[in-house]
Amino acid sequence: MAHSTMNGHHSSSKRLYKVVLTGGPCGGKTTGQARLSTFFENLGWKVYRVPETSTVLLSGGIKFGDLSEEDAVAFQENLLKSMMQIENTFFTLAETCRKNCLVICDRGTMDASAFISEEHWEGIMKRNGWNPVDLRDTRYNQIIHMVSAANGAEAFYSTEDHACRSENIELAFHLDNRAAEAWVGHPYFDVIDNSSEFDTKMRRMISVVCQKLGIDTGDRLKTNARKLKFLVRGPLPEDSVFPNFQDFNVEHIYLRTNSRKMQARLRKRGKNGHHSYTHTIRKPEQLGQIVEVKTPISQRDWSNMSAQADEHHLKIYKKRRCFLHNNQYFQLDIYQQPCHKRCEGLILLETYSTLSSEELQRRLPSFLSIEADVTGRPDYSMFNLSLRDEWNVTNKFCVNIAEEADETACGSCPGSGLNMHLHRQSPLLASSKLSSSHHAHLNSLDVYNPILPTHSELISLKPFKVGFEDLDDMAERGIDIPRPTSVVKRPVKVTNGFCAPEH
Predict the structure, then answer these.
(1) Residues 170, 159: Cα–Cα separation, whole Å
(2) How much is the CA Rg of the chain, to the nearest whole Å?
(3) What angle do CA 195, 199, 203 make, to 5 degrees?
(4) What whole-number distance in Å separates Cα of residue 139 and Cα of residue 340?
(5) Which DSSP symbol is given to 208?
(6) CB atoms within 10 A of CB 258
(7) Residue 187 DSSP one-character state
(8) DSSP run (H or E) holding 226
């Protein structure tokens, strides 16, 4: 069997990744499929390209505009069944392929919902025993919305090269928004807008796939995507103020590990009795970069692995609200009871972005009261927020990578350049706009006040490449880790004086 690391070379396990390219007319999906396919084939991967089912059917003489409402609903239902059968054919081939395999779907199951009313869509779901968690969240590893040229690049909008498309620019803009909204709620959803010229748009699209897979692209793509986290002051506005959104109940459980240099956690995410389950491992390798291995698991796995919960951590309960605003995908985490008092009333907004700080500021939701950028702040790390004990009495508070020879140091926090065993008698850097309960916990952190690295030390951090050999080493030491289907690897970002990753 062929093996690969996250860089496309040989290791111990084949990898399968399913990605959907969606979007409105003239967004670059066809070119994107070709570019993405070529890139991964050059890495030695097998690539399958699933054709757009609607194009196959419409090219046979069907004109969607000529259909009655009843016929249009029946058409979408049959289109969806056909799409799933075609996809399943490719998925089955990919599962038996002996090489790393990327399956690129031209649109996916949820796109059908963009062309009919919500009432009719719910009827289709009910008749067939389907639910959004299965169709949207667990069927594909990643969704990429290629924004139509009708939204931000109007001068380049055209339907001349597409025999089945005739939308004017206003309809194309509407359909693009509908297609994006159909996927709101998927845990790994990226929006590639028209803020750059077309070739850069293609490289940004390839980059977000590589980042989710942990593939080091060197300087070839240069997009500098980063995860950002913002503190939001409550109470939240009425639901009607938000754009179209999806709410989920999320539960996190931290697990015991054999090394303080590694974190392991479970996530349960869903609504209306339907859930997806994920096992995540975060492991530091060197300063400047982390490895995060995400593995979809079954409900039975979740139940069994929950027995390994770390007694030093409380469960984390959140309501997660997902929405699109200004072509940017946001996740709003609203911490729920039961929780530690430091989490009471806590609301955090997260997004991934390649935009400049100035442009991102313009895109942040104006209907939310955003208090501070807390990206990389250890006091907003979910690992630390979930600690059962007060921060000033526990040795579990995570700030840095442990030194090789110092097993007593905290090593759970991958990628930080801070050393929690070097202290200053000065308060931890924090915003003055924090909640009173959070301030109280910061003030108790005397023994954890770190000496920050100098600017020259921070910019000297170099990215590096890692492989799946680490998982083999963990398995040999008796740590039971399912093989991953998705790996995320990101450089550490420096924000507010801290060099620490998101948790």
Answers:
(1) 13
(2) 23
(3) 85
(4) 34
(5) H
(6) 11
(7) S
(8) strand 226-233
Mapped onto helix, strand or coil, the DSSP state of residue 112 is helix
Q: Closest by alpha carbon to 216, among 41, 466, 32, 486? A: 466
- Torsion sign across C-alpha atoms 51, 270, 367, 243: positive
Verify cis geometry, omega within 30 degrees of 0, for the bond prior to 338: yes
Residue 298 has pLDDT above 90, yes or no: no
How would residue 223 be classed by pLDDT, with cut points 50, 70 and 90?
low
Location of structure tokens 């985490």:
333
49: nearest Cα among 61, 27, 65, 32 = 32
Q: What is the rounded average pLDDT of the residues 90-103?
A: 94
Task: Specify the residue for token string 């259909």.
Answer: 67
Pinpoint the alpha helices (H) of 169-260.
Answer: 169-182, 198-213
pLDDT in tens, 190-204: 999 998 888 888 889
Question: Which residues, 6 or more positions from 388, have their beta carbon under 8 angstroms from its beta carbon?
Answer: 311, 312, 313, 314, 340, 394
Residue with tokens 């054919």: 89
Average pLDDT over residues 320-341: 93
62 by DSSP, 3-state: which? coil
Query: What is the C-alpha to C-alpha distance for residues 426 and 278, in angstroms, rounded to an integer?
Result: 39
Average pLDDT over residues 235-250: 94
Tokens read off for 188: 């790994």
Residue 134's identity, in one-letter code, is D
372, two tokens: 């501070």
Query: Which residues, at least 6 apart from 416, have a Cβ–Cβ distance to it below 8 Å?
Result: 378, 399, 400, 401, 492, 498, 499, 500, 501
The pairing of strands 189-192 and 142-146 is parallel
CA atoms within 13 A on the CB side of 243: 21
pTM: 0.60
Tokens of 354: 């390649």
Contact between 385 and 342 (Cβ < 8 Å): yes
- Compute the CA torsion angle 254, 256, 261, 262 (nearest 10 deg): -50
